[in-house]
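Re: the request from the purification team.
They wanted to know what the chain is likely to look like in 3D before they choose a buffer screen. I agreed to run a prediction and write the result into the notebook, where they can find it.
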Amino acid sequence: MARDFVISVMSRDRVGIIAGVTRAILDLRGNVEALSQTVLHGYFTFILTVSFLEEVPAERIQAAVEKSGSQGELAVSVKVRDTDAARTAPVTGDQFVLTIMGKDRPGVISRISSYLSSRSINIVDLYAYTEGDNFVMISQVTIPGNLDIRQLQIDLEGLPLGSDLVIRLQHEDIFVATSEIEFRHKGMRPR
């Protein structure tokens, strides 16, 4: 029986969801190995990989996580984790950051993701939102080494998305170096 699982949870946002879910996992003698969480338009969602010290059925994990919220509050999915998945990436290559900013219009994400897929470019992480008439998308992608980055930038800028969208493709190292954000608590001095 499996000891490694992928668990996803979705519900309306409130304080304490992560605390409750991780406590339920700990009570089953599970260890969270990785977690990714976000809130979109008032809805909380996260996915985590968990390993257990002993064999625990997926149904028991799901029931325990669901009970960490109120009746019917949490939509929970539990899948056996394929431990080879992390070692077998769908695409090998360099990591890039693709940003798109400008006027919002339907179809931007669909067109961009279709183009990337047609070039065998894997989307590793994607965050997009609209604010009023403005659209922002930030995505981490893996680009195969045999593709010409300059030509990709030209192709991306030529997609029929609208002339008021700014599309930028940067190597991850350059993006991090030029976009580093420093978080400081008020009153703290830099070290």
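For the purification team: The first helix runs from residue 17 to 27.
Please add any questions underneath this entry.
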